[in-house]
Amino acid sequence: MSCALLIAEPEPSTGSFLERHLAEDGFDVLRTEDGDDALALAERARPDLVLVGSELDVVRRLREGEPGRSWNRDVPVIVLGPEEADAVDRVRAFDRGADDFLARPFMYDELLARIRAVLRRVTPPVGTVLEAGELVIDRSTRCATVGGQILPLSAKQFDLLAKLGSEPTRVWRHLWCYPFRLTGTEKRRRVETPPSRSSPDLRARTKIARICCLGLAGKPASVWKPSVA
């Protein structure tokens, strides 16, 4: 998923340059040259990060909020300071709520690295253990259980299940699915001793197949019909 960046840069050439290159690097970019428009865009678009061109009043207003208006007051902000910026300018920017400060002239690659670093810091960590009803997914050990029964999953099957578990209430309309196939050893064992429908292994496979077909929210996620045969 791409991140949305808001550029509030009064200098047209700099703003256009940043808009073009950040879009090429996969960001959804909104740009304005006016501070009031920047606040309106922040309210409407809810960007993941704001680049502010030296206008510290915009940073202050973003942080403090305004009556009758609503935006994310914790949105990360990087200030692009003037060429003559010194330590006092940087302190002022941080005091008004900036998360980072980069004086001009700057290298685009450095700005891009700073943007990604700030976004990493504000991205909420993914839980190691995911739970949804009877389903427990441990990312650290790559082990999944349903009602205490360990699920025999391949690496891709586990990744798919962990993706579902990360958003248990979401109804997945487009989801990559594939059959849960038995290994060669399991096929030979099945020929020699066909498992009963009450066997723990078959019950576990049936349950995990239903989970991946329906989604953890319990609603259809794909047209794939699982088979445990």
Quickly list its features:
229 residues; alpha/beta; Rossmann fold; Arc Repressor Mutant, subunit A; 5-stranded parallel β-sheet; 8 helices; disordered C terminus
Order the strands across the largest sheet as they lie in space: 2-1-3-4-5
CATH superfamily of the largest domain: Response regulator
Fill in the CATH topology of the largest domain: Rossmann fold
Count the beta strands.
9
Main sheet makeup: 5 strands, parallel
Strand content: 15-25%
Q: Which structural class do you get from the secondary structure elements?
A: alpha/beta
Spatial extent as radius of gyration:
25 Å
Summarize the structure.
The protein has 229 residues and is of the alpha/beta class. It has helices at residues 12-24, 35-45, 56-64, 87-95, 108-122, 155-166, 184-192, 200-214, and strands at residues 4-8, 28-32, 49-52, 77-81, 100-103, 129-132, 135-138, 143-146, 149-150. The chain has a five-stranded parallel beta sheet, with helices on both faces. Strands 6-7-8-9 form a four-stranded antiparallel beta sheet, covered by helices on one side.
Give your account of this protein's structure.
Helices cover 41% and strands 16% of the residues. It is an alpha/beta fold and 229 residues long. The protein has helices at residues 12-24, 35-45, 56-64, 87-95, 108-122, 155-166, 184-192, 200-214; strands at 4-8, 28-32, 49-52, 77-81, 100-103, 129-132, 135-138, 143-146, 149-150. It has two domains: 4-122, Response regulator (Rossmann fold); 129-214, Orthogonal Bundle (Arc Repressor Mutant, subunit A), CATH 1.10.10. Helix 4 links the parallel strand 4 (77-81) and strand 5. The protein contains eight helices and nine strands. Strands 2-1-3-4-5 form a five-stranded parallel sheet, sandwiched between helices. A four-stranded antiparallel sheet has the order 6-7-8-9, with helices on one face. The two termini are 36 Å apart.
